[in-house]
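Record passed on underneath.
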Amino acid sequence: MNKLENKDLSTVIKERHSVRKYEENIKIPREEIEEILNEAILAPSSSNLQPWRFIVIDDQEVKKELRQIANNQEQVETASAIIAVLGDKEMHHNVEKVYKSNYEAGFMELETVERIISSSTAMYQQAPEEIRKNIASFDTGLVSMQLMLLAKAKGYDTVPMGGFNKQKFMERFNVSERYMPVVLIAIGKAAAPAYQTTRIPLNDIIEYV
């Protein structure tokens, strides 16, 4: 068992930093990446529609291509893998799959499931695309943060990257117009310590009413 697996959540949060220098000879098994993702997708989402999809890029030659799409950021090529997190702008198409699964698991009555499917489908279909994009962006942010904390708990380092050419990414990886690339997350083992950072004092950003 990795020694970090015994650390509490507060410790993991404090030790997670954005790492940009990675050991190039580290290869994380796909099974382990899937373990991380399987826990990450327990994150909450609007109406539980889970509007996230993932593309895991671990082939070295493909990472080299991706580096050019991602503003030549070194970590894209040197990290063990890049996890691209996509947002589903048409998340209402997931509603039947999600809620029928809830029914089959015994979590909901059939009448409740049918009512939710009907109301959610109508609501999301009528929502402007910009609203649905905002929802997908928010929810993919939740799953991405959970992913990075889980990676740190397993002894891996990460860095989220929003700076990449999203249109070129879609073209290279044949991404449907239904989905939008939100963030690339490099994962691997740090080759050098991350820069230490400070935070704005809580007293400056909190108020009680």
Q: What stands out?
A: The mean pLDDT is 95. The chain is about 45% helix and 15% strand.
